[in-house]
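so my prof wants the structure for this chain in the tokens format not the other one, which i didnt know existed until like an hour ago. anyway here's the sequence
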Amino acid sequence: MSITGLPGNIPHQGLKERNPPELHISKVRAPTSTDSGANFDIGDIWIDLLGDDAYILVSKDAGVAVWAIMGGVPGGIQTINTLPPDGAGDFSILAGTNLTVVPGVNSITINADGTLSSSFPTDAGTATPLVGVLNVLGGTGIDTAGAGNTVTVNADGTLSSSFPTDAGTATPALGVLNVLGGPGIDTSAAGNTVTISTAGGGVAIDEINVDSTTGTGTNPVVPNGAGAVTFTGAQVAASAFANVININSDLPNQFEAQIQRSLAVAAADTTANGVSHFDNTQFTVDGDGFVQSIAASIFSWLDIGVPGALALDTGYFVTAIGAYTLPTGTANGQTVEIVDVVGGGVIVTAPGAQIIQLQNAASSAGGTATSTDLGDSLRLKFRLADLTWYACPGIGGNWLIA
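here's what i got, hopefully its the right format
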């Protein structure tokens, strides 16, 4: 038996003639998936001189070449997470959401693109995730809950979110609740404490003691539900109590200052003291409340040498010529007396619309009576009904009326 053909061929057995793998050498590139034509057979080797890598053709299915890297300097990556490179030996590393991929000479850098937080500043310190996990935990009075992509932060029920008051309910705004004082109230704060006190630092009055009670009054008197106490004034009958003024409660939440009326008695009695008023035909009361009996007025005599105003219930020895104006009469019986000691020329003038009446002669309103000689005199008494000063009981000397 003889064997013909090329050495190593076995054609008589019907097998394809064995061809050794072809070696392809390129100085410019690595093979691609399009390097799959008739010139390439499975097992062919591609030497990439530019990249110092070697590839072997492992598939040409559907005309797409798959070149597997065999090695190189410093050596190729065979798989990433069990995935092989493409026919050109390439792996594509793509950026996902919020990521960027930065290739280097022999490195690939994957960065967050700035829209992802890598640190979380807080009121006290900064938190950074650990192995991609950031714990969001509640502090005192705070609970947290997570579901899906949401973390909910809640007060746990031990923190107040509303503050009911006597009139309305207050709720904090941006975490701030104002605690302010109303009329007569001050507030102050230090640390975790708010102090509410009466204005000026005094002690608030919560009850008032009184001298007596009548009806449904109470002692002490306490405020009503609105914090108010009613304080009034009143007059009561003479000798109703020992003091001129008495503080009495006659209704709940109310008291009054009572002043008793005076009483006429035969002898000194302080319990009869009180307020009273007077018969204006018998008494005068000045602006200071000073009371005088008209019948018992103290009449005084003065020398006067400067013309001017005269006073009620006063006698004058006039020592200088000039005009002397009577006081304005306000009550019956008010008296002024004038004696000329200079020798004539003393002019007595009636005030305003009042008149001087000398026997049957009357001055004009605001008119005058003028002395003519030494010793001329007048005693004038006022009558309120006709606003007239009458010479009573008479006239001394000779007076000229005008």
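also thought this was worth mentioning. Residues 204-276 form one domain.
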